[in-house]
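User: Hello, can you help with two protein structures?

Assistant: Certainly.
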Amino acid sequence: MLLDYFRLLSALSLSLDILEKRNFGHARKVAYVAIRLARKLNIKRDEEDKIFYSAFLHDIGKSDVYEDFNSNNTWVHSLRGSDMVKDMPRGHEFSDIIKYHHENWDGSGYFHINGDSIPFEAQIIYLADQFDVKYNTVSITMNEYGTRKHIEKWFNDESGKSFNPIVVKVLNDLMKQEKFWLDYEHYDTFDVLRPYISNETMIIDINDLSKIARVFSNIIDNKSHFTYKHSKGISEIAYKAALISGYDEMMAKKVKIAGLLHDLGKLAIPNEILDKPDKLTEEEFMIIKSHTYYTKKILMEIGGIDDIAEWAANHHEKLDGSGYPEGLTGDDLDDISRLMAVCDMYQALTEDRPYRKGLAHIEAIDTIYKLVKLNKIDGRSLDIIKEVEL
């Protein structure tokens, strides 16, 4: 399996957007503004790539608490993110860029480095990030013309303070182009970004994808105190179950990745629902059910892993069509989708949750078996889980 790193990071960046309660596309818009600045500044191609990939990952260290550009604590997610990306392919190249992407040109940032002491790539990411934040904030109350004028004035006022005057000057040149604004507003199509990608776009294999999936599973599991081992637990059970089922190592690794990323869409669910100690209302359950939709939407955007996307997103479907999000039936669900549903249910039943203590192994098996008899869960998959060393 070979995947385009650009498409992968672009897709996964959507999960970071919903985590920090932004509209989809923040990282893509930052990537667009940053790469346009880099091209105008005649930056070397390998440095361009660092900027491009860093743009997709710059907010990876954010928690589920929205931090806007006025926050005094932006350094927290910058520092956290710089550590997290080290576990990703080429991540050591992005680490310092992410660490310093909120440092002010005049040295008034958290790390108190100034001017050319700040990595140039970080300077560009910072300006591009603030461009998008400012645009989203101002455009709520102003028309397009007023928004553009306000942004232009704000960046010129901050030149020499927050931002490198040279980079601000280049931004001013870009803002004179109507195409720049229109491309920025159409961030949701790959066609806008594709022309700015190096011909030597980085390709990753199954092992690199596994590393990235582990990083994102940490983000997923850390969202709630009660699910801090959930994704990892499912991935291990699913991997072992796939091998027992007779699948080869490559297929088992893909199943493991599906387990790591199956709850990616839960980043869109408020913690007050995830951590609610009582039974969910119908409205709250409706919101919970959306997480599988988001999981599939994000993973399908990567391209080349449609099977993983299906397995990850189908873990709440039922054989009788009573599951979600698509109401699929047994005829629609392949063996691995059926297996993932049992793995998810077993892991959930044996974990402590806000409203109950986790069940013992035999109690969890018995509970799932009742659903097998109701034709909701696959019996063969349950038999395979019984063979897994847990």
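That covers the first. Now for the second protein you mentioned:
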Amino acid sequence: MNALQSALRAALHERDHQHARRHLVPVERQTGSLLRQKRQLIDVTSNDYLGLADHPLLRQRAADWAERYGTGARASRLVSGTLPLHTRLEEKLARFKKSEAALLFATGWQANASLLPALNHLSRQQMGHPATLFMDRLNHASLHHGCLAAGLRQVRFHHNDLAHLETLLDRHADQKGLKFIITESVFSMDGDRANIPALRALADRYGAFLYVDEAHATAVLGPGGCGLSNGLADITMSTASKALGGMGAFVTGSQALCDYLVNQASGFIYSTALPPACLGALDAALEIVPSLEAERQHLQHQANRLRQRLNDAGWKTGASSTQIIPIMIGDSETALHVARSLEEKGFLSIAIRPPTVPPGTARLRIALESRLSATIIDQLGDALLDSLRSVTPQ
């Protein structure tokens, strides 16, 4: 065994010892459920919050556009990969997000990881100084990676703590270069919301710009499902791979921003364009989403019911106020045990463990979908409380 293989095996053994090793388990999706290791399960762990990944219109348009335009875009956008489909869809996305322009990316990770280095380059080039990035400490890993890729030490503020953020903004008030406040609108592991209007006010007061990751709010929250930023952010990043039911991501903001990213965001410049099938699914989703107000209301109502039941039983769900409900357990081994017990009762919810979440905060992350009935939610509550019965509430 060579040194590389020895190091790999030692690292995996360490992960096993810490109950932190991940494994890929294939699932076969069926109408209203999934099949995992020959067990029929109700999925309460995915991000398809409105069930659009199964919607017949998205399926049909994805298939139609693949048939008409091919299976791939064949090149990056700046070579020959920009199809009329891309530009028309970007115009629709800009209207949906109440912004001047939109730019498609392959994934949300790619967009976040590409934008922050590009914005830092802009600050250095035009202002003569690096950018200052004020980051909520619980932001998605792609945003933290973007800071590393930019070569910047982020200025972290306590999660959703506006007072702490203002203290940091004041401390760095004389610092030259562009300043950005960066947050998620709905936090993916905690299910709580940022106060976007208050962040906008702080940004204006201190001459900063607001960057909002809308991955888990787009299509689910806000007027017509447009998200929580609702025109208040300078830059938003949204994904098509969650409540919009497909694949891809898009940045919205000014036309100048999007034009600049075309010239500077490496993830955009050096990646093959999204294929027609993905574009077709997203195009169809944009037609459907504004009309799904009843589904959005049902989703949040059922989340409130389940959250209240868990809280009444002594289980903490943090500041969750959305379709994402964390059940705080603490250590990774116990979280895995509870997840296995819940699976035996017919529900799939994956245990979320460090380093995805901070040490000591392993949890079940319940992610609800609008097609789940009140009866199913009650059955989920029964199964959860039974699975948690041997564990002391955190």
